[in-house]
């Protein structure tokens, strides 16, 4: 019996090549997408899996109290916390603090006569090796505790020292700290959120003095046994009460399990975890994949039931020959399973072919060989089974229900419900496609909007050069001077940071009575910074040029938002004294500018000549860009500081990076949207073909009565156009709601215009008409005598 | 007695009116009979045949088939009953297009869960009996109408039914092919004792049978 089922299914496949090709193509596209996403999601979910099982590792999160700072969660904690926890809280096995070099910048590493730009250098307590199970392959774990010792990953060691022995050698970081290499460890796996190339002991540097006020240290804790999270959080609070006065407690702490770091940290600021994912993105992509598969399944159901006229006869005959319903259900499922199996095989091939492309679009490094792992075969099986069950359900249950009597009546007409269901499915398909089209249009517009948004400064034509390796003020002055001397350069300013990067977060108070305060970003900069960035001065002047060595007065240039908080007009604000950590004098006011991404509204910002922070960057504004310009810059830089790598970036490119996620969404989304529409069109095409076939006789009669080709085309198209219009009516409110919700993520966003919907409607209708026109015209042109002669 | 119909009524309601398809039909069929049902178009011939074949239901009356009360049986048992005892022959042959002659013949055996080796034997046997061994691997579309109907009859016979129901079996055939099929029916009836009920328009074909039932407007006349 089974063999017979297979045989019949196989022959059926070949008996209707068009039907089979459309089905297989649609399903295999759907499956290919599902498989690629399976790999992607599997990879994302595998993150920090290596720490699962003994999951007593937590990261400490800092929650600001919403008073001194607006309410946020930070990934960093004060460096005093970990040692205090270790002594006061029982049951703690390991603690480690992690600080990315220079609070999040690249490091300049000098090895002998070579210099390297190291992007992943971390200062971390030695316990990190136990916490993250970093395996030491050379050297002793105990040596890492020593101040001025450093451990390298195997890859990094090879990069720095080639094949020579690295242990015992000295490297110099940012021309300041000489560190001895004491250990080599295995490279961190690809699915670890943390990626440490160099782990340096902070004993002599960042961990030397302990503070409760600077929360820049990511802190990991491992407990001996399972703990109650609220209990430990309470203990930490006691600890804070003991060490920090109530009025300085602008934070509280909470615990985040290690395995949740990768996917559930998108909202937390300043995480050093190099590879962060986003659970929301995974959910969205899964939804899309399921949607496309569903559309392909709907195609299958549609096409199969569309042929029910032929199938009803077959079912009828089989029933008179003694088949029972169950047998026929099995047979239709086998038929579906065969088609989905073929689709699956093609889908795997498509997935392998499409993977490099997907990697490129989404910045992933997924390996096609993952598809050959046993787990993948399980995934194939599940996808295959689910698709078969879903796609086969309606045909199997509907077709097998035909009464044997239908075999006797040649003019058997399809039941109303079948047609209704099929129409319903087409509506669902098109509604889904329309939602995707609207979504993509809105995302595209928003990205364009961001690109064209007046940021309040001019990010073009600015090169940012890292000068963190230069230690002396004279060196810094010299390099600024030298840069200025270059022909193309119009202005140079040294600064702690630049728009798009974090600077220092402080609180602005109007006077001693001001209890409220306002978050303010402070950026230690040269006076020229206003010119380099192209900021508009509303009142006053820029920072004073020459600051006396013994001049303890600090000047600031505030932005409009800060002055608004103080309640002054820009003019009034000049020479007023306010508090940012200490008393400062306002010398100028600039118009607001977007110093972070457009996701967030503009906050208060200050340029200051305080000397609490390094000025680690030279911002160089140039006139005309020539290919040689960067070489000139590099030569100039090297002449002043031969010890440091020339590390540069373009400011406008940095700004673009803030919207990387959106860019990625739009790229992946476009592809998926296109595929979804393609699959839906395939179904429509097939359906139109069968509709034309079914109404062959009617068309013949109409033509004999004098209908023109256009009349027939209109007749066949109207039905579909009605369905598409209905689909659009359903889709638009949903699309509007979803788009609106997405746009709310941006502090600055576009309005949703009516023409987006009009355009989507036109596109959908055009696609529909185009798809069915082929069939309609073919049917309309056929010779009526032929179709009327049958029966 | 093979089957007995008692006061069978069947109707449809259209526009508030009840239209009778079958009206008070009483019929007894003994094993070994060869009955022809005749009547003009719309007189209820096919409906009666469908009711006898249990493919269609009726609204009133009793139907006994080999001492089973068909009117009280559930669909599943009814289909078991006809699977076991009845073979169908259709006007437009109704062979399965995707299966070869041999596979078409094998189908009823598959549904009866006959073992593989036995199936092969039975198919070979009937191919032989009907002289169509050379056609066994052809598809229906490769056969003439007469040949297709020959296969249709062979398929109806393969599971050794007690009763063959034929709905205008020669309606689509020319006179020579018709004659061959009717001779075949006669032979099956005489030599093998198979009961046959056929619907026909043709007096000539009806004459092959042992009894003729005339219908008019759903009523026996």
Descriptive key words:
heterodimer, A: 791 residues, alpha+beta, 14-stranded mixed sheet, six-stranded mixed beta barrel, 25 strands, 17% strand, B: 221 residues, alpha/beta, Rossmann fold, six-stranded mixed sheet, four-stranded antiparallel sheet, 7 helices
Structural account:
Chain A has about 800 residues and is of the alpha+beta class. Chain A is elongated. Chain A is built from 23 helices and 25 strands. Chain A folds into four domains: about 1-45 and about 275-415, no CATH class; about 55-260, no CATH class; about 430-445 and about 660-790, no CATH class; about 470-645, no CATH class. In chain A, strands 1, 2, 3, 4, 5, 6, 7, 8, 9, 10, 11, 12, 13 and 14 form a 14-stranded mixed beta sheet that branches. Chain A has a six-stranded mixed β-barrel with strand order 17-18-23-20-22-21. Chain B is of the alpha/beta class and about 220 residues long. In chain B, about 40% of the residues are buried. The mean pLDDT of chain B is about 90. Classes of the chains: A alpha+beta (about 800), B alpha/beta (about 220). The interface between A and B is medium-sized, with 25 and 29 residues.
Order of neighbouring strands in the sheet with most strands of chain B? 6-7-8-3-9-10
Number of domains of chain A: 4
pLDDT averaged over residues of chain A = 83
The fraction of residues in strands of chain A falls at: 15-25%
Biggest sheet record of chain A:
14 strands, mixed
Shape of chain B: globular
Number of contiguous helices of chain B: 7
What structural category do the secondary elements of chain A indicate? alpha+beta
């Amino acid at each position: 019996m089974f063999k017979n089922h297979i045989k019949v299914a196989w022959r059926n496949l070949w008996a209707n090549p068009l039907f089979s090709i459309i089905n297989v193509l649609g399903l295999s596209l759907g499956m290919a997408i599902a498989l690629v996403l399976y790999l992607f999601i599997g990879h994302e979910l595998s993150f920090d899996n290596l720490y699962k099982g003994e999951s007593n590792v937590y990261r400490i999160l800092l929650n600001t109290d919403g008073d001194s700072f607006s309410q946020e969660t930070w990934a960093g904690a004060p460096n005093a916390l970990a040692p205090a926890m270790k002594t006061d809280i029982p049951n703690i096995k390991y603690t480690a603090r992690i600080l990315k070099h220079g609070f999040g910048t690249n490091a300049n590493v000098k090895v002998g006569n070579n210099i390297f730009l190291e992007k992943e250098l971390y200062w971390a307590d030695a316990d990190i090796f136990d916490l993250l199970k970093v395996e030491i392959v050379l050297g002793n774990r105990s040596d890492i505790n020593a101040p001025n010792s450093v451990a390298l990953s195997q890859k990094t060691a090879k990069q720095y020292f080639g094949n020579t022995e690295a242990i015992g050698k000295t490297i110099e970081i940012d021309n300041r700290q000489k560190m001895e290499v004491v250990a080599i460890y295995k490279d961190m796996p690809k699915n670890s959120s943390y990626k440490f190339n160099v782990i340096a002991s902070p004993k002599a540097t960042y961990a030397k003095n302990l503070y409760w006020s600077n929360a820049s240290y990511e802190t990991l804790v491992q407990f001996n046994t399972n703990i109650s999270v609220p209990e430990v959080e309470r203990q930490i609070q006691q600890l804070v009460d003991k060490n920090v006065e109530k009025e300085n407690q602008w934070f509280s702490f909470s615990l985040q399990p290690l395995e949740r770091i990768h996917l559930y940290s998108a909202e937390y600021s300043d995480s050093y975890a190099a590879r962060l994912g986003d659970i929301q993105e995974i959910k969205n992509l899964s939804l899309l994949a399921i949607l496309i598969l569903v559309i392909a399944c709907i195609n299958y159901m549609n096409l199969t039931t569309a042929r029910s006229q032929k199938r009803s006869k077959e079912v009828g005959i089989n029933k008179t020959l003694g088949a029972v319903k169950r047998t026929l259900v099995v047979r239709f499922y086998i038929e579906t399973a065969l088609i989905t199996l073929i689709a699956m095989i093609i889908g795997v091939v498509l997935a392998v072919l499409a993977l490099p492309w997907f990697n490129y679009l989404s910045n992933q490094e997924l390996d096609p060989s993952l598809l050959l792992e046993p787990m993948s075969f399980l995934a194939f099986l599940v996808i295959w089974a689910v698709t078969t069950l879903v796609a086969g359900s309606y045909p199997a249950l509907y077709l097998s229900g035909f009464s044997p009597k239908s075999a006797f009546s040649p003019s058997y007409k399809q039941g109303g419900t079948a047609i209704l269901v099929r129409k319903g499915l087409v509506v669902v398909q098109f509604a889904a496609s329309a939602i995707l089209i609207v979504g993509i249009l809105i995302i595209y517009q928003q990205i364009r909007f961001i690109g064209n948004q007046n940021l309040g400064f001019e990010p073009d034509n600015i090169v940012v050069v890292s000068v963190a390796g230069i230690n002396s003020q004279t060196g810094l002055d010299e390099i600024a001077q030298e840069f200025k001397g270059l022909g193309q350069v119009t202005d140079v300013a040294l600064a702690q940071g630049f728009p798009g990067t974090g600077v220092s977060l402080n609180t602005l108070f109007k006077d001693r009575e001001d209890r409220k305060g306002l978050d303010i970003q402070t950026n230690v900069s040269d006076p020229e910074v206003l010119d380099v960035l192209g900021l508009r001065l509303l009142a006053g002047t820029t920072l004073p040029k020459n600051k006396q060595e013994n001049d303890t007065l600090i000047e600031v240039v505030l932005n409009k938002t800060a002055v608004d908080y103080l309640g002054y007009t820009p003019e009034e604000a000049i020479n007023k004294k306010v508090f940012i950590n200490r008393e400062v004098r306002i010398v100028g006011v600039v118009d607001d500018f977007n110093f972070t991404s457009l996701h967030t509204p503009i906050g208060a910002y200050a340029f200051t000549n305080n000397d609490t922070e390094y000025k680690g960057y030279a911002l160089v504004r140039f006139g005309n860009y020539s290919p040689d310009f960067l070489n000139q810059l590099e030569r100039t830089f090297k002449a002043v500081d031969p010890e440091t790598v020339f590390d540069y970036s373009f400011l406008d490119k940095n700004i673009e990076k803030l919207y990387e996620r959106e860019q990625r969404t739009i790229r992946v989304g476009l592809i998926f949207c296109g595929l979804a529409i393609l699959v839906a069109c395939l179904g429509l095409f097939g359906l139109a073909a069968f509709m034309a076939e079914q109404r062959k006789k009617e068309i013949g009669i109409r033509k004999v009565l004098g209908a023109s080709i256009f009349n027939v085309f209109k007749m066949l198209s109207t039905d579909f156009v009605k369905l598409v219009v209905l689909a659009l009516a359903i889709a638009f409110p949903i699309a509007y709601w979803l788009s609106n919700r997405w746009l709310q993520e941006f502090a600055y966003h576009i309005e949703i215009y009516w023409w987006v919907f009009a355009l989507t409607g036109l596109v959908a209708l055009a696609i529909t008409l185009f798809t069915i026109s082929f069939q309609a015209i073919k049917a309309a042109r056929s010779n009526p005598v032929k179709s009327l002669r049958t029966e | 007695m093979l089957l007995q119909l008692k006061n069978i009524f069947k109707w449809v309601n259209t526009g508030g009116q009840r239209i009778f398809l079958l009206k008070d039909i009483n019929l007894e069929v003994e094993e070994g009979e060869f009955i022809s049902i005749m009547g003009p178009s719309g007189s209820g011939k096919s409906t009666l045949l469908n009711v006898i074949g249990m493919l269609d239901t009726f609204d009133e009356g009793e139907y006994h088939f080999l001492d089973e009360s068909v009117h009280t049986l559930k669909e599943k048992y009814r289909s078991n009953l006809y699977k076991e005892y009845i073979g169908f022959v259709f006007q437009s042959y109704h062979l399965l297009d995707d299966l070869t002659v041999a596979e078409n013949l094998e189908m009823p055996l598959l549904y009866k869960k006959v073992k593989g080796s036995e199936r092969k034997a039975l198919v070979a046997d009937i191919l032989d009996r009907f002289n169509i061994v050379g056609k066994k691997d052809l598809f229906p579309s490769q056969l003439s109408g007469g040949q297709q109907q020959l296969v249709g009859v062979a398929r109806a016979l393969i599971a050794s039914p007690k009763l063959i129901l034929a709905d205008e079996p020669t309606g689509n055939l020319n006179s020579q092919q018709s004659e061959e099929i009717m001779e075949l029916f006669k032979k099956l009836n005489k030599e093998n004792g198979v009961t046959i009920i056929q619907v026909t328009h043709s007096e000539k074909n009806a004459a092959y049978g042992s009894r003729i039932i005339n219908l008019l407007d759903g009523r026996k006349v």
